[in-house]
């Protein structure tokens, strides 16, 4: 939990005139600020509290807090499952769970679908017993049932809740979305086989497939032109591979792939996604640890 305060003097008693100097605050490089009543960025939220002084000036106090709910672990009390709440069980580090989390954010369902992060290394026994017998994340508790599997969940959230549509907007795009979604597992396998040293060319071919796919529709930089569930299906994995290839193999997967470079740039403008990003260093370190374990 990061918490800090700073005082800022402003000359008029109107809220929009509040200005925070960047010299006063330092943020992680990936952060972005949105000024308003609440300022959000990837892992923290800032609340501004204003007080009017007798001389007509206002004093603003900005409090920066971590906006992430703590993970539940084996010591956590069981939740009242099936009490009518809608809950999305995730782990912050799981790319599959990240898909469902992005869908929930993009559709603006933060107040409708409660996020319940689970510590997978020390998970509560009641999670398997009472919530999801598969004992995996993501899982969505909704209407007295529990639904799993991230690709199904993106569609389920899109179909069963309000908010902007994530579905393809034409029959042709639907077929292409189906092809791309069917390729997600093969894509990850191919990239991993290069990382593990089993097939040195597989990752290149997989990233070339993505580059080609991104050139199909010109209305926008996304797989189907406009942002859709296909982008959500791929981003958690490409985010990780981008970082790991750079760090471990000194390879920039976007080099010579302008569509992929632009797609990553545009994805990083979507708050529904940036809010779910992990610390890049954590991603790389976790990968290195797992790779070392696999070698022994
Ligand atoms: N096919 C599943 C995969 C989900 C999955 O493997 N989640 C991992 C975390 S990233 C998990 O819960 N692992 C726990 C376990 O296997 O015990 C999906 O797409 O949702």
Automatic annotation (TrEMBL):
Official protein name in the record: glutathione transferase
Residue span(s) of domain GST N-terminal: 84-165
Entry keywords, A to Z: Detoxification
Gene Ontology BP term (one): response to toxic substance
Reaction(s) catalysed by this chain's protein: RX + glutathione = an S-substituted glutathione + a halide anion + H(+)
UniProt record similarity statement: Belongs to the GST superfamily. Lambda family.
Molecular-function GO terms, alphabetical: glutathione transferase activity
Superkingdom of origin organism: Eukaryota
UniProt enzyme class: transferase
The protein's Enzyme Commission number: 2.5.1.18
